[in-house]
Amino acid sequence: MNYEELLDRAGKNMPEKTGDSARFETPKARGHIEGNKTIISNFKQIADTLERPIEHLLKCVLKELATPGELRKDAAIIGTRLSASRINEKIEKYVNDFVLCPACKKPDTQLVKENKILFIKCSACGAKQSVELKMQK
Predict the structure, then answer these.
(1) pLDDT surpasses 50 at 74
(2) Torsion on CA atoms 78, 42, 35, 93, rounded to nearest 10
(3) N or C: which end of the chain has fewer CB within 10 A?
(4) Phi, psi angles (nearest 5°) of residue 78
(5) pLDDT of 88 strictly over 80
(6) What does pLDDT average to over the chain?
């Protein structure tokens, strides 16, 4: 093989062009309080933006908030009155733990489970690292 063929082959094996992490912003929760419950109306959009399963995001946020909750259509119902800033703080923590690559800090990652261990795998730099166990269970 000559140099140009090798270069073409390497180009085909490269991951797709990824977004710039400087432009990535964590989505903010929008919602309202109804009685003793907090309803986050854009919870599905947040999960879609982060490219994570909505159930995983809800489970981790509820665990961090130490409160019960459930999904109804595209909204999350949290079983206590909470401020938007507190919910956004927990979503930001989720992003740091489960979305951003620990090596390059880009959001181009997937969660991969291998032998009961959850890994975060970056498609931008190729890094693979296990995720903290405390929030997976």
Answers:
(1) yes
(2) 40
(3) C
(4) -105, 130
(5) yes
(6) 85
